[in-house]
Amino acid sequence: MRIKQRPRVAGIPVDIDWRSFSLGAVLPLPYLAQSLPADERVLDWLPVLLGAGVLAGILLALGGLFHELGHVDAARLVGLAAESIRLGFASRVTVFPGEAPQSLGPRTTLIVVLAGPLATLAYAAVWIAMRPLVADVPLLGPVCDLLILVHVALAAFNLLPVGPSDGRLALTAANRLLRSTARPAH
Ligand SMILES: [Zn+2]
What are the per-10-residue average pLDDT scores of the chain (186 residues)? Predict the structure, then answer.
């Protein structure tokens, strides 16, 4: 029996739920259609509009991958090898062996956890830098604006200490770090 090979990015296996692409491609369509000049009929632009949707879907998924690669690279820096990256339908995660990186001490955890939102901000910064080049191009300009908005917002949401977020892991690690460095009062 042939075992399906997972694609590898930067030496790490990536499990992709391809439905996330379709979600990323379809959700921006109303916004992209609204960005067309007022005197243009949406149906006349349909092939280009769908193309812009697919492009947005791919670039949004790439942003998710970029975030997880931030965790992976930071982990490598502190000597921890991630097992794989999972890009799910509505979630994405880097899989580490066992309880890592939380088991490796608060400083390590902080570095690995914060690298994800930082990578997301770096991805947004790439599109902020690209914006002057594409701002006036129909559909491409709005796709660029969407990528900036979504990734700045995602980085902010990631840092909120609610649910199983990077923010919560970072806050827990920061607490542990403060407690371990605090000296007892005399
Ligand atoms: Zn993350």
Answer: 72 88 88 86 88 94 95 92 88 82 81 96 98 92 96 95 89 89 62
pTM for the whole structure: 0.87
Q: What's the domain count of the chain?
A: 1
Closest CA to 121 of 80, 74, 153, 155: 155
Beta strands in the chain (DSSP E): 8-9, 12-16, 84-87, 92-95
Instruction: Determine the structural domain holding residue 18 and report its residue range.
Output: 8-180
Give domain status of residue 89, yes or no: yes
Going from the Cα of 142 to the center of ligand 1, the distance in angstroms, rounded, reads: 26
Asked if residue 76 belongs to a domain, the reply is yes
166: CA distance to ligand 1 center in Å? 5
Local structure of residue 88 (DSSP, 8 states): -
Residue 121 has what pLDDT?
A: 98
Question: How many whole angstroms from 118 Cα to the centroid of ligand 1?
Answer: 9
Residue at 129 is within a domain: yes
